[in-house]
Write a structure and sequence with these properties.
This protein has about 240 residues and is α/β, with parallel strands linked by helices. Helix content is about 40%, strand content about 15%. It binds SN-glycerol-1-phosphate (1GP).
């Protein structure tokens, strides 16, 4: 099944685990993969706002050697490209007004992506204010949508869908103090027909459940999994049980 078909499958709410390839050792990656396999996680996202080691491809290969779960690159910049991934979230940062993040970097990456033949998933990436400055905001030189401005988020997502983007990703930023509000998730999900990813600051299975019940189709967990890997099973079970 193409990865995008999996994203669209309405019969199951999904969990993606984010791995920042810079941080873990090989042994830690393998332990994370083992836990993700056991928990029946739906996707691995690999990437980071700023990578300081040459670890991306190694991490992807390691995951793929030990798991059938699709691995997608969630790129922080146009250097984060690899022929070894299963899919690539081609992010257009539609909450911002930085042309480099809307189209500039994509022009540089496009010929390599074509060469590598990755499945490309055009994604409207929306940064939502989470109470503190985030790496994404600083690195992308964009202003997030204010936390309580649901209407702006709704109209931005709708415009993204009308432009032909295939996913919307509501992002509070890794380690966010507060996640995207359920009210914003609900309004955005009602406005669009394409799948909705929500991530950033989701610390407990209960918070994940609230986001899914509000309308998220896919939940991304990074920091919580790094801090408490044993929680993954509960995250997955909670999300998968919601109809
Ligand atoms: C960040 O949405 C992801 O891009 C995950 O965030 O690390 O806070 O789970 P956390």
């Amino acid at each position: 099944m193409a990865i995008y078909d999996k994203f669209q499958d309405k019969t199951r709410k999904k969990l993606a685990v984010l791995i920042d390839p810079d941080k873990p050792t090989d042994a830690q990656i393998l332990s994370m993969v083992e836990k993700a396999n056991a928990a029946d996680v739906d996707f691995f996202f690999v990437g980071g706002s700023l990578l300081v080691t040459d670890s991306l491809e190694h991490c992807i290969k390691l995951i793929k050697e030990h798991s059938q779960i699709p691995v997608l690159i969630f790129p922080g910049n146009s250097l984060q490209i690899s022929k070894y991934c299963d899919g690539f979230l081609l992010l257009s940062l539609i909450s911002g007004r930085n042309p480099e993040m809307l189209i500039g970097r994509h022009v540089i990456a496009a010929p390599y992506l074509k060469l590598y033949g990755n499945e490309i998933i055009p994604t409207g990436y929306m940064l939502i204010d989470s109470g503190k400055a985030t790496s994404v905001s600083y690195m992308s030189d964009t202003t997030p949508i204010p936390h309580d401005k649901d209407d702006i988020a709704m109209c931005t997502a709708l415009a993204g869908e009308m432009l032909g983007l295939k996913l919307i990703y509501l992002e509070a930023g890794s380690g966010a103090l507060m996640p995207v509000s359920t009210s914003m998730i609900s309004k955005v999900s009602q406005m669009i027909n394409i799948p909705l990813i929500v991530g950033g600051g989701i610390k407990t299975p209960e918070m994940a459940a609230e986001a899914v019940k509000a309308g998220a189709d896919i939940i991304v967990i990074g920091t919580a999994f790094e801090k408490e890997p044993e929680l993954l099973q509960k995250f997955a079970k909670t999300i998968h049980e919601i109809k």
